[in-house]
Amino acid sequence: ANCSECLIMDIPEKMQGVMVKNGAGTAQDMFLDSVDVPSITPSQILVKISATAINRADTLQRQGKYPVPAGATKIMGLEFAGTVASLGSECSKYKVGDRVFGLLGGGGYAEYVAVEEGHVLPIPDEVTDVTAAGFPEGYITAFQALFWIGGISTTDRDANAKKMVLIHAGASGVSTSGIQLCKLAGVGTIITTAGSKEKLEMTKKLGADFAINYKEEDFAARVAEITEGKGVSVLIDYIGQSYWKKNLDSIGLDGKIVILGFLSGPVLPEGSSIAPILRKRVTITGSTLRSRSDQYKTDLIKDLWEFAGKAFSHGCLRVIIHKELPLSEVCESHRMMEANE
């Protein structure tokens, strides 16, 4: 780090970071390279990374389908855990050596990362670095979608008890986080979809009241049955095109659909009707987190931690870890993610 305004400990000039050959490619095109340790601004801290996590967005970035925000590092990795190595002159919440975890615009697949102090949280004593590294992207994204956009309350449990929520891709990182946050908030009915018995069972253990196998059932018909024809209050979707009509069938009056992805494609099926949006007074919001402003992310993280920090510290909110691998096996981690393992 070469910022003259920073409090600096012994930090190398070079580090190992994961790069992609020619800027985009397959999982096998990733490699460890020697790169500069990032400099920090007065509002940032430098963290020596002990653990990071793999997200679907990483695989899209690697393929060249998820552009890096202006000014952000090209190194992948949206979350981390580690220890504070140095502090910008405006930073006062932490000291060198503190265990921290947080949200990134990129840079987690490396030995060091520069991060805004407001995007960092203290790792509770009871929580391991590996568990902490898997918390930020899933929980922050789910909290934003369900609470800030979807309208679930952090304080009004009586209002939440009247809500019914449908979360697709129930075994994904964002969805497993969302199920648990809904349960913590006292949401009345939590419905998820997934494609295997094992995944369905896991979502129910995390708090889902109903788990629908989308490969075996028409999820819209099942939602109508569960909600007695009323539809759900909030619906979280990552699938897009192939779920469009069934999502509109599943949403209730004045319901909110939050679109976080379009794995089946962004172009709507021929003959799609927008009439249900008008008839049901549906609000549809698309959202990404990475491109939001630093202040937005700071406020969002603060709000989430005030609501869920104690529950996470006490082990009431789980991070689902499929497998632990060294950074040198990052290619295998992407292969597993893309195979939906």
UniProtKB/TrEMBL annotation:
Protein name per Swiss-Prot or TrEMBL: Enoyl reductase (ER) domain-containing protein
Domain (Enoyl reductase (ER)) ranges: 25-340
Gene source species: Paramoeba aestuarina
Keywords from the named record: NADP, Oxidoreductase
NCBIfam families found in the cross-reference section: quinone_pig3
GO molecular function: NADPH binding; oxidoreductase activity, acting on NAD(P)H
Lineage: superkingdom: Eukaryota
Xref: InterPro entries: ADH-like_C, ADH-like_N, ER, GroES-like_sf, NAD(P)-bd_dom_sf, Quinone_OxRdtase_PIG3
